[in-house]
Structure formats: C-alpha cells, structure tokens
Amino acid sequence: AAKDRGKNCYAWFSDEMESELHRRNDFEQGVRSGIPRGEFEPFFEPQVDLATGRLEGFEMLARWRSPTFGLVSPEIFIPIAEESGLISDLSLSVMRQALDAAKSWDHRLTISVNISPAQLKDPWLAQKIVKLLAETGFPAHRLEIEITETSLFENLGLAQSIVASLKNQGIQVSLDDFGTGYSSLAHLRALPFDRIKIDRSFVTSMVETADSAAIVSAIVKLGETLNMPVTAEGIETEEIGQMLVEMGCSKGQGWHFGRPKGILATQKLLVELGHATFADGQGPGDFG
Ligand code: C2E
Ligand code: MG
Ligand code: MG
Ligand code: MG
Fold it and tell me: Fewest 10 Å CB contacts: which of 132, 249, 275, 283?
C-alpha cells in the first residue's frame, strides 16, 4: 500500500506499520459488515442514587460481538467507526436495541447514551434521535445524552443548536468525562447541561491521592452552584462511594455497584431487584 503512494512515503512505512494498516482495514471491514448483521449490542451499567443506593438507571455502553475478534471494546471500534463514517449507523442500531428493551423496564429508570464528536457534526442528529424515540416508544424524559468536552471543541455553534433541540424535546444532556478536556469552565457556561459526569480517573484515585479527592469535591460544589448535579463514574469500592456521599455527590456508577451487562442479564438483575434498592437485599458485590 505504501508503494502506491510514491517513493517519498515508502521510507515512512515499516513492516510493523504495514501490518497495523492491514489490521485496521480488517477491523474497518468487520465494523462495516457487522452493523447490518446485528453484531453490535448494548450493555448496561447501573447508575445509583449514592445516598440511598436506589437504582436510577443505566449507562448504555456499546459492545461488538465479532465472529473474528471476539468481544471488542468500544475504545477500539468507536474511533474506527468515527473515521470511516459508520458511527451514526452503529450508534443508532445499538440505541434502538437499548430503547426497545428499556421501554418495558420500570418507568422511573433512565438510559444514558454516549454521543461521539463525529456525531455532533451531524446537523440531523437531534432529528434522528427524536425519530428513534417515536419508533421505539421510549419517553424523551428518560433519555440522557452524554457529550464529552472534546466534541464541543470543533464546532461549538452546531453543538449548541443540537443540544437546544434535544432539550426542547425533554431529553437530558450531560457533560461526560469532566475534567479531562480543554477549557472545561467555559463549556459549562456555553451549554445548558443538566448534569456533570466526573471522569473516573479522578474518582479511582480519590483514596490514595488527596489532590484527586480535592478536585472531585470542588467539582461537586461547582455543580451545586451551577445547578448541575454530579454523577461520579468509576466507583470501585464502598469507601469511595462513602466519600462521595459525604461530598454531596448525587449519583454514581462503577464496579462496586455493577459491571456493564447485556440485555438479558440486565433484565434478570431487574427481576431479582424487584422494587428493592442496591442498599438492601443482597450486597452490591453480587451484581459485579
Ligand atoms: P465513558 O462514557 O467514560 O464510560 C465509562 C467507561 O468506564 C466504560 O468503559 C465502563 O465500562 C468503564 N467503567 C465503569 N465503571 C468502572 C469502574 O468502576 N472501574 C473501571 N476501571 N472502569 C469502569 P467502556 O464500556 O469500555 O467504554 C469506554 C468508552 O467508550 C466510554 O467511556 C464511552 O466514551 C465510549 N462508548 C461506549 N459506548 C459508546 C457508544 O455507544 N457510543 C459512543 N459514541 N461512545 C461509546
Ligand atoms: Mg459516558
Ligand atoms: Mg464518562
Ligand atoms: Mg470516562
């Protein structure tokens, strides 16, 4: 492949880079053909009210069950889908399955969906989501859209109009992975977020690193002041959950409360829980 691009490029392509390219092509082909085959599916990670332990809803996380590569992480296939223009189809396919399943769950439960930077460049994004809600019958107020700061960087104007359309429909919008992007504070003012999600890199290190704990506490206070409640991600221990309660953090998720699971396993969990909360009955570890 490098040879086709002329002599000057040739020197830049080592054997390693060649095989990396082939691997990437294989992945891209796999993603492209896997979407219509239904190989992409939603997993669900519990989100709880930290003070009471009550289950509030789930974050939907995409998984690729590839016949060739096995169960593939979104950290690998999302960037490939973005670069090859497949992210919109992939995302809508996974969302459709999630909303179809979740519409019959307890009507208080919310579903949070991640939207990638490439999708925020699509002027029709809000319309596509609204159409999906109409087709699946999932109510707008139970849907939360998660946007990362990085995706606001490229076209803030379009992002603002998409967020305005989503909010007009009653959809909640949250700022994901807060603290890891650029000029965070300006973004909080630029968009009417309903909620802030603290990145797990701060949360997992809260016990060992006083600075992390101080940052998390400051973000929770900032959220209170701006009327944007905070969700903490990456809560792996009871101790961290307790620290967050004391800081006044409203919602949380992480392996302490439960790992992401497929539709059937999630439905089984909901049956087991009944109307109980994560605080009573079996310990949270039983769901991990
Ligand atoms: P994110 O939105 O920050 O999602 C949280 C990630 O942290 C998930 O990884 C989740 O499994 C992981 N996680 C949750 N709790 C814990 C914990 O207690 N400890 C640790 N170590 N990790 C925890 P996952 O599922 O691999 O997703 C990675 C990222 O991929 C997500 O980060 C999200 O940005 C992206 N992603 C996932 N699904 C989709 C999707 O459908 N569309 C788009 N655009 N992006 C997605
Ligand atoms: Mg997220
Ligand atoms: Mg996140
Ligand atoms: Mg994160």
Answer: 275
Pocket test for ligand 1, best of 41, 200, 237, 257 (most atoms within 8 A of CB): 200
277, two tokens: 């909360």
Q: 180 — alpha (psi -120 to 50), left (phi > 0) or beta? A: alpha
User: What residue's CA is closest to ligand 1, atom 25?
Assistant: 61
ipTM, 2 decimals? 0.94
DSSP characters over 18-57: HHHHHHHHHHHHHHHHHTTTT-EEEEEEEEEETTT--EEE
How remote is the CA of residue 225 from the centroid of ligand 2, in Å? 23
CA-nearest residue for atom 20, ligand 1, is 234
User: Measuring CA to CA, which residue among 58, 30, 103 is closest to residue 262?
Assistant: 58
Residue nearest atom 17 in ligand 1 by C-alpha distance: 234
Give pLDDT tens digits for 210-266.
999 999 999 999 999 999 999 999 999 999 999 999 999 999 999 999 999 999 999
The vertex-251 CA angle with 110 and 227, nearest 5°, equals 95
- Provide residues with CB under 6 Å of ligand 1: 45, 61-62, 73-75, 78, 91, 94, 114-116, 146, 176-177, 200, 233-236, 253-255, 260
Give the integer Cα–Cα distance in Å for 153 and 196. 17
Q: Phi/psi of residue 183, each to 5°? A: 35, 55
> The tokens 């409360």 sit on which residue?
257
Q: How far is the CA of 74 from the centre of ligand 2 (A)?
A: 11
3-state secondary structure of 173: strand
Average of per-residue pLDDT values in the chain: 89
Encoded amino acid at 255, one letter: W
The answer to whether 105 and 270 are in contact (CB under 8 A) is yes
The Cα–Cα gap between 266 and 262 comes to 6
Q: Which of 72, 106, 39 is nearest to 275 (CA)?
A: 106
